[in-house]
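P.,

For your records, the input lines for the assembly:
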Amino acid sequence: MKLHIDTTLNQEPAEFLCAPDETLLSALRNELGLTGTKEGCGTGDCGACSVLLDGRVVASCLVLAAEVQGRAVTTIEGIASGTTLHPLQTAFLKEAALQCGVCTPGFIVAAKALLDVNLDPTEEQVRYWLAGNLCRCTGYDKIVRAVLDAAANMRSTRA
Amino acid sequence: MLHGMTTTRYEAPGTVADALSVMAAHPGAMILAGGTDLLVQYQAGLRTPSAFIDVKRIPELMAIEADASGVTIGAAVAAADICAHPVIRAWWPGLVDGVQLIGSTQIQGRGSLGGNLCNGSPAADATGALIASGAVAHIAAPSGVRTVPVEQFVLAPGKTALAPGELLVSVRLPKPAAHTADAYQRLIPRTEMDIAVASVAVSITLDPSGLCTAARVVIGAVAPTPLLVPEAGAALAGTTLDAAALERAALAASAAARPIDDKRGTVAYRTTVVGVLTKRVAAIALSRAKER
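C-alpha cells returned:
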C-alpha cells in the first residue's frame, strides 16, 4: 500500500505517493523526477544524496520518504533562484571544482547548509563540514577553494 | 518493497502512549529515530521489521529540557542539537567531545542519543560520557515508567535492558557538583569518521583545594559493553591527579579491559592504549574542573 505524503519541496507545496519503506532519495528520483540528487553508496557514507530537511543537511538515502510529511525538503534543483545560479554553483564552475559531477550536487547542498549558518568559515571548518561528502575524481582542493570563494563573494555582496 | 512479499508499515505516533500501543500491536516493529543505523541494516537485509515506528513526532523524545538540577535529553534528539545546546556544552563538555565524533555532518543531523545507546555498541561514543556523569535512562513501558542507570543499560553487543514493548524516552543527566568536569577521547587511526579502537570517558570532582574527591572512569571498545571501572576512579580519588595516581588509574583501566582482536586493533594494543587514554582524558577533565 502506498502512502500519500504532503510536503514542501524546493519552497513549493508538493505531494507524492511512496511505499512505507521507500527512501526519500528513491521518492525524489523515481516518484518526483528530481534526479539531481544522486545515489552513491546508499549507506550514508558518501554524501552524494545530500538534501536539506528543514534546513539541515541529511543523507536522503537514510531518510524514509514518509518522514517528510509536513516538513520542508530542499534539493539541488532548489538551490538556484530561477535562472540565477547560487554563488556556490558559480564558484564551482569558476574553480572547475568538478569532474564527473556525481558528487557535485551533494557538495553544493552540504556547503549551502554550512554557509547558511557560517558565512565566514575557515578552510578547516569547510573540510570538516564536508568530510561526509566523497569525491572520487577531482580531489578536494578545488572544491574547498570554491566554497571559500563563494563565501567571500556572498560576504562582499551583503556588505 | 525491498523484502518482496512482506509489507513493512510506517507509523508515526505523536505521544509515548500511542507509541507503546503501536509497539504492542506490532511486536516485530522497530523504533526509527535518526535511521542512520537502522535504515542501513534494513537495506542490507540484516533487519526485517514489520513496521518502522518513527518516534520523532513525539515531543518528549525530541526535547532538551534544562532545569536547576540537570538536563533531560529526549531519546530521538539529534547529535547536532546536543552539540549546539548551550547548557550541555557548559556542563558536559565531555559528552559533547563524544557526540560530535559520531559520523559526518549528514549523520550528526539525524543520528540520535537514544539510537547510539540502543544500538548497544561497545564503541558507542556517547555512552561512556553518559555513564561517567551518572546519567539515567527513562524507559516507558505499558506498566509505567522505570529508570535504569546508563551503566546498566547496555548488556552485551547489540543487547540492552529494554524489554519487548518498552521505549527509551529520554536520558537524564544530574547537574555536575561544584568543581566537577568531564572529558572523552577515543583512538582511531584517522581524523574523522571511524569507530573507536579504544575510548575513555572521565568525570572528576575536586574540593576547593584541588584535591580529587570523586572520579568515574569509563572505558569503551575494550569489552563487550562500555565499562565503568571503579578501581580506576578509586586510584584518582584522594589525589591531585599526580603522575603516580594517573599511572595507577591507567593500570586499573588496562586491567579491567577485556578486548577482542579484530581489524581495528589487537588485544595487546587496545589494553595498552586504554591506559594511555585514561591518563590523557583524566588530565583534560582535571583542567576543566579547575576552571569551575
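Two observations worth noting. Residues 5 and 69 of chain A are 5 Å apart (CA to CA). Chain A touches chain B at residues 1, 3, 19-23, 42-44, 47, 50, 53, 56-59, 61-64, 66-67, 69, 110, 113-114, 128-133 (CB under 8 Å).

Regards
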